Amino acid sequence: MPTAVTSKTLPSQLGRGLTVIDLWAEWCAPCRILSPTLAALEQELPLKVLTLDVAGDKAVAEQYHVQSIPTMLLFWDGKPVQKITGAYPKAKLAQFFQTFIEDKQHG
Q1: Residue ranges of E strands in the chain
Q2: Beta strand pairing call for 79-85 and 71-76
Q3: Structure confidence at residue 107 as a pLDDT band (50, 70, 90)
Q4: Is 31 exposed, middle or buried (0-12, 13-18, 19+ CB in 10 A)?
Q5: Cβ contacts of residue 84 below 8 Å, gap of 6+?
Q6: Closest of 11, 12, 13 to residue 3, by C-alpha
Q7: How far apart are CA 88 and CA 33, in angstroms?
Q8: DSSP label at residue 56
Q9: Is the pLDDT of residue 9 over 90?
Q10: Which residues are catalytic?
């Protein structure tokens, strides 16, 4: 199950491997579509999902120059590596994350 974080608790939640930070807001319809997809992928793939509500906590969005939501920030071993904006179908995200993890583990 995804873990809700704030800009203050985020650093302590970053671990080894792939961490996906879901930047969202309650009023964002595509965010509400993406959230259950990421929750399901967290159960199926070796990744950790963190959620951050940017409506009340804009620090992380500002730090990573996020202009629109939903945006996913990808961290590998605690370091930022990629930013993805938009809601995508589960199959497309699953394939992307799986390839990303394999490339990082073998590259």
Answers
A1: 3-4, 18-24, 47-53, 71-76, 79-85
A2: antiparallel
A3: confident
A4: buried
A5: 71, 72, 74, 96
A6: 13
A7: 9
A8: T
A9: yes
A10: 28, 31
